[in-house]
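Illustration 12: Nicalin.
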Amino acid sequence: MWIEEAEELFKSYFPYYLFIVLPMFIIISPINPVSAAYEFPVYRMQHYDLHGIAHGCRSASVNLEARSLQSWGTSRHCVVTRIQDLTVDYFRNIRGKAGALLIIFPEDVSVLSHEEKQHLMMLEDVMLAQELNIPVYFVTWTSELEKIATEISTVVSTDDRTKSASEALFASVSANGYQIVINPRNPSPKTDIKISSIQGNLAGYAVEGKTSTIAIVAHYDSFGIAPDLSFGADSNGSGVAVLLELMRLFSILYSDPKTHGRFNIIFLLSGGGKLNYQGSKKWLEDQLDSLDGSIIQDASYVMCLDTLASSDGLYMHVSKPPKEGSPASVYFKELKLAADRQTIINVEGVHKKINLADDLLAWEHERFSIRRLPAFTLSSLKSHKDLLRGTVVDTYENFNLERLVQHTQLIAEALASHIYNVSGSELFGGSLQVDKTYLEAWMKFLATQPRSAQLLLGKDNALITFFKDAFSRYGRDVRISHSTPDKRDPDYMFYEVTRGTVNIYSVKPAIFDLILTMIIILYLGIVYLVIQKFSSFYNLACSLTSKKKVT
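Figure caption equivalent — predicted structure in token form:
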């Protein structure tokens, strides 16, 4: 009789108790489901078009299984790796076959060795050479990420032939896996694009009814593999800082009638410098193609400032060597004379013709040289191909402030010697000298915020407003001009999504789910048979025990 009651209990009440008690065991379990999910800010790779050529990654969404450099195999995998471990060959293989790439970036790039920095810059150059179809993101290192990357590296590769089939199966089942999920907005083209350039003047006094003009130009935007990681301390924060210091110094001289210079000085902070100098191009079109004319038409020379603290050398880049006795030639001589007084600085001239067949110009002065204006670029880099001009390695921690002060002193002395026709004299001394604290303040301000062009769009940008206030403090006739791409055939185009959030979930591999499903089915099948055939199992057990007693 009790057998029938037990059978009835299993059939009627046991399933309900199972549904109630099992969730309670899950709730009071010591395993915390929250600890299996992680969330980090991520920075998307560059995504823009320039002269009809696509650059950067086209896709943004990721929902893939995480694998290491050695264990990934298909487009269903997101490769997770440290930037130091990623080689050019690895990247080219990932670009064509993997589903996505998540790169762990150092918390402080200044701790990288010289070889690691060179490797990173070369990798940036290769990655931006052509468009990518897979999403590429960067995430800053944390201890939690280090743990995740270590566990991912233990996942057995499907191509690992050093293990037996049973060992590989057991390792793949027992290993912990991770799912990478990034769900940003759709990377659609930006519609309201305005690249701003700021202009300010210092008017010189007229000599025989005519006043010559000197233009000093620097682009303020930065560039790197990821817009939100591009701080551009040297390229071109240093050029901006030197321009603003020159503006401060000469505004003091021009405010005194005794030291009022005979040249008009135009100061221009141009936007879109890393996009083939779009800001300078638009500014020149406005100046030279207007019916009213412009003082830039009578320019003695245009001095462009670009990356001024990367070496002890100072190079004057020209598209055409200046004629003997021309204003540009005189300035170069004054620059060498000033350098002779500072023996640690070497001044050289570098001549490179403009190759009109190239889509990209080498230096900003070429924009002015094309319009037949005498122009040159001052830089501490000898070649325009130097990878330091566009890298996330260019941070304030890697910056040499003392070198910038020396180069600023040199440039200012040479400019003052030419303007006041006092060759070989030191004009900036005593109370009127290059202010190191002023340069340091500007460099810290510029190098603590990313200045990639797509982050500075719009006329109400805080950085542009800050530049305008500085120009208004020292210059006159301050203006802001805006460059916008043509709607029918744009020279450049930016896209939404430069940053996002990555969710990393701790999961088991797919084969684990398959085996677990088979075990659950087998277990439920056994439970079902026990419940349905309980009386038969009981009678069988009784018959076996009774036989043993008889014997």
